[in-house]
Amino acid sequence: MVNNLKQLPLDQIKKIVKKEEKALKKEYSELVEKKKLIERYKKLRKARQKVRGKITIKKSKPKSFQEYFDECIKNRKIPEDTPPHFRKAIEKVLKQYKSKIIKTKSAMGNSINQYQIEGDPNLTPNQFFNKNKKKIINFLRNNKNKKVNFVLLCNMQQPLYDQKGFVGYREDDAYFRTNTKKVLESTNVENIVKGNINKINLDIDKYQQNGSGWVFSSIKKLEINLNDYSPTKGSSYIDLPKWVKLKKAIINIKNKDDKCFLWCVLRHLHPKKRDNEVISDLKKYEDELVTKGLTFPMDVKDIKKFEKLNPEIPSILVLSVEGKSFQIIKSPKDSKDSINLFLVKDGDRSHFTLIKNLSRLIRSSLTTNNG
User: Fold this and answer.
1) Which of 288, 319, 324 is nearest to 303 (CA)?
2) How far apart are CA 170 and CA 124, in angstroms?
3) pTM
4) Helix/strand/coil for 64
5) What would the pLDDT profile of 84-139 be if each residue is shown by its tens digit?
6) Which of 90, 200, 277, 351 has the least CB density, counted as fewest CB within 10 Å?
7) Omega prior to 83 cis, within 30 of 0
8) Do residues 320 and 327 lie in contact, with contact meaning Cβ atoms separated by under 8 Å?
């Protein structure tokens, strides 16, 4: 190519060089542009990947049957968006739900629980309670050592008038509450339920007679609130009230540990005439009793577990006192042969003592707890 150029005239060689320079510039500019575009593409791709990593499109998860049912219980009606197959199932469950006492809330590790009976728009308060009274009584009999109160939620109506006369009703909810009562082993549950029903009926009557014009319309629900109640745990020595001490019917175990319950049981099994409140002679008998899985100080509600672990010993009666009235807080299986204990209290502390003469202790002062 160079040899051929030598044979050409100067003007023609100049034209060829200019043409090559132009082509080279063009090719170079294209390469530069191409490189810029590739770098730009890489940056855009990285940016796009970052955006994709940060933004996730959440697909709405379809609601479960339980979610629809919970919403139904909360709002007291079946949600409008409930699928037909769920709607039929919920309607079936609701029929059973209205006739049962259902647990609706719990807290503090199930030590606080709320139950409810669904209302019936066609029943008056008296009719509602007559229909459900036996059910409530049986429910409370199976839930001893609790604090209980009732809350009846009613729909109330107030008639509205203008110059032309009656125009309709204003509606509102009203809550009718009972006082909290204790349900212990010896509690007459039927009396508590009757008392609560009477109080609610009286409160409804007062509400309607206060001159505001509000009248009962329907019952929405009855809430039964149950809180665990432990009359207490026995601990180290506490002196007896003077009036109890004067009866000379109790052996007050003098322990420095938390096993007063255990020492009382052992003293009953191994009696002695003198210094019977001292525990030093009882320690050699401690292995006679099975206490696996139990903790001390002993909680009254755990005494039944102790009895199951030790079926060969007599069952246990526990009394406590309010004012100057004795109350049974734990009944024995066999009242003829039982270990009788008295739980004495001092503020937040409690202490088991052994009753050596029950008739002398309770003479004319025993009551059963009705709440």
Assistant:
1) 319
2) 19
3) 0.50
4) coil
5) 888 888 777 766 666 688 888 888 777 889 999 988 888 999 999 999 999 999 99
6) 277
7) no
8) yes
Domains of the chain: 98-228 (3.30.1490), 242-368 (3.90.70)
pLDDT value, residue 175: 94
Please count the other Cβ atoms lying within 10 Å of the Cβ belonging to residue 285: 15
According to DSSP H, which parts of the chain are helical?
Answer: 2-6, 10-54, 65-75, 84-97, 125-141, 189-208, 242-245, 260-269, 303-309, 358-362
The amino acid at residue 171 is E
- In this predicted model, what pLDDT tens digit does every residue of 219-258 receive, in sequence order? 999 999 998 876 555 557 888 888 888 889 999 999 888 8
Cβ burial 315-343 (10 Å sphere, 16+ → b, else e): bbbbbbbeeeebbbbbbbeeeeebbbbbb
User: What burial class does residue 282 get, using C-beta atoms within 10 Å of its C-beta: 0-12 exposed, 13-18 middle, 19+ buried?
Assistant: buried
Cα–Cα distances in angstroms (integers) from residue 339 to residues 240, 298, 305, 319, in the given order: 19, 15, 15, 11
The number of C-alpha atoms within 13 Å of 149 and in the hemisphere containing its C-beta is 10
**Pairwise CA distance, residues 352 & 252, whole Å:** 8
Q: If you search the block for the tokens 């009203």, which residue do you land on?
A: 174
pLDDT digits (tens, 9 = 90+) for 42-96: 888 888 877 766 655 555 677 888 888 778 766 667 888 888 888 888 777 766 6
Paired with 107 in beta bridges are 112
Residue 288 Ramachandran class (φ > 0 left, ψ -120 to 50 alpha, else beta): alpha
Cα distances (Å, whole numbers) of residue 223 to 17, 119, 220:
103, 10, 10
* Token representation of residue 225: 């609130």
